[in-house]
Amino acid sequence: MKAFVLILVLGSYLNFGVLGSKYSRTVNDPKKDTRDDAGVEFSIAKLNKVWEKAIRLQLAPVKQAELHSDLEIQEKDELHWKKLKAEGMDEEGEKEAKLRRNFNVILARYGLDGKKDTRNLESNFLKDHDNTDTNMFEDPRLDKLWSKAKTSGKFSEEELQNLNREFQHHKDKVQEYNIVMETVSRTEDVFKNEISPSEMEIKEHVLHEKHAELKEKLRSINQGFERLRKISHHGFDVDSEFKEPRVAELWDMAKERNFTDDELESFKEELMHFETKVEKHKHYQEQLELSHQKLKHVEALGYEEHMVRNKEKYTKLSEKTREMGYKMKKHMQDLTSRLARKALQHNEL
Asked: Tens of pLDDT along 39-76?
């Protein structure tokens, strides 16, 4: 059964009609419902601890849904890695190291790494652009660009929300780059101190791959910042093929890869399907936030009957938002991986 799941996840991207089921939790994680019935959210203890901490710290509903989707993907990847390890694969520990990096990125993204007060994330996720914090993105260049964009008068409310998401996405990429760079530095120190001459050639190959990954991530960050700079100064390009910032960024990256014309056209078509998925996810996020606000209002008034009805609606929306988030993030992960592989192939030529 697990092999069947893996085939579904890594299979062909050409059958667009089944993309929804391909990235669904039911296909990727058939045991999920049983775990829910048992009162356990995830089958891996450390992921449960992170989830319980997020609930305890009362992350905003949309943030909770986002975190839940990220933890589900992490869970699936770790279970797959355990299967590979049991079969004697990943002897160099590369996949294990990547899983650790991904986990650390999740902790940093949601402020659960102990480095800052997570309660700052309780603000309305969809209205974060109203935040007056001068260190909103933890990068003076980003904060300065964001301040200019907010006061420029070039953007509608919806466009500011989209731009805010793009800034947050860029911030996440920088966090991930810093974590990978820190890991590579530690790995280099270990190699210098502990690796024997006979193993050096193998380990140098591993380091070369890591440096190539870092180089590609830095290139993506620089391109992303330049894109943000242009949008902040001139507004969104009305003639762009894609409206959603993350999708437009993927398209810009794809055009710079060594795709054939047919491959690029196929990738563009898939991005159109992906953009629909992103828009649908955004719609559910907005509905979840509205439902949460309404539920708080009803609870304050003390109307028992309305509370039950609104609680049921909120719970259903929360579950649907998680489901859509999982599909969207899983698809995003696969698209990004394909672009990264294409870039590495080009660098090796």
From this structure: 689 999 999 999 999 999 999 999 999 999 999 999 99
How far, in Å, CA of 318 to CA of 284, rounded?
8
First to last CA, the chain: 38
Whole-number Å distance between alpha carbons of 331 and 16 = 12
Would you say 47 and 74 are in contact if contact means Cβ atoms under 8 Å apart? Answer: yes
Res 74: pLDDT: 96
Beta strands in the chain (DSSP E): none
DSSP state of 131: -
- For the chain, give the number of residues: 349
Element (H, E) at 258: none
Query: What's the DSSP call for residue 259?
Result: -
CB atoms within 10 A of CB 57: 16
d(CA 32, CA 51): 15
Nearest CA-CA partner of 191 in 179, 200, 183, 182: 200
| DSSP codes joined into one string, 54-104 | HHHTT--HHHHHHHHHHHHHHHHHHHHHHHHHHTT--TT-HHHHHHHHHHH
CA neighbours closer than 13 Å in the CB half-sphere of residue 19: 23
Minimum mean pLDDT among 101-110, 228-237, 319-328: which range?
A: 228-237
Query: What residues contact 240, with CB distance under 8 A and at least 6 apart?
Result: 248
HSE-up of residue 223 (Cα within 13 Å, Cβ side): 16
